Fold:
Amino acid sequence: MSKRFLSIGECMVELSQAGAGLLRKGFAGDTLNTAWYARACLSPEWSVDYFTALGDDAMSDEMLAFFNQAQIGTGFIRRIKGKAPGLYMISLKDGERSFSYWRDSSAARLLAADPDRLREAIEACDVIYFSGITLAILSRDHVDTLLAEIRRAKAVGKLVAFDPNIRPRLWSGYDEMHATISEGARASSIVLPSFDDEAAHFGDVSIEATIERYRALGATSVVVKNGADGVTLSFGGTVSFVAAEKVEQVVDTTSAGDSFNGAFLASYLRTNDATQAARAAAKVAARVVSEHGALVAREKLGLEAL
Ligand code: AMP
Structure:
């Protein structure tokens, strides 16, 4: 029977340096990246859909065509007259990357403005994925609309996965950020945080503290990612550890966590075995950090060896 994976959030236009003053255009965003890797790793009986809002401009048309080409479903995506996608630019100085963003009035900020369409999408899908960035770009009313639908999905037994993906600059203050991310986690069944972020912004003193905090909120399962130091899993009250893969040369860590999430969920949905899924995801993420860019082609992910 066919199944559907839904990722909810914002994809942006990415501009990066291409030398001689030229810029290269791409498309990326945390939840889109995870949809990309879920699509690469899930079997063909699964479809993967992206839920966002786009404008009616040429760039939105191109982005939609890009999703379709990547076999990411676009049927739930709303087009809003007069709007455009958000944009970010990567600058390189002395080998260090820095980012500038133009996303304050992006179409995606209105992704939850049509509650009927949101409900239709969530009801049509079996697995729902979203992130702290998805919540950060929405107005308070729209956070309420989105989380109400996500709670309904969890209540009827759908798998709801959430990466807190903490980005303080997207929030108006720490209290709002803490409260809303905690609400997102409470609405979810699997939370996939990165320990660095949780330690820096929630003050967690250990990985165990991160696990306990999210379990206390009501997340049944927690997967704490810790870069090259592997992941710690808490599933059904059992805690286990899976080491990261050795990487010869780390080229670009963009989307390491997003790719881990997509590959982990794909494998977990197939095997129902969190440890096995974490091993598979560590392999995929290791390939991703060995290549440039957020979206690494399926052929380079070593999936045949999983
Ligand atoms: P992070 O979001 O930085 O915790 O990374 C997510 C996942 O990517 C980790 O759980 C690892 O599987 C993988 N990863 C990130 N950085 C490295 C690295 N330097 N070497 C090997 N794997 C890595």
Remarks:
- The radius of gyration is 18 Å.
- The domain at 4-305 is CATH 3.40.1190.20 (UDP-N-acetylmuramoyl-L-alanine:D-glutamate ligase).
- The mean pLDDT is 96.
- Residues 194, 225-228, 231, 244-245, 247, 250, 253, 256-257, 260, 282, 285-286, 289 surround adenosine monophosphate (CB under 6 Å).
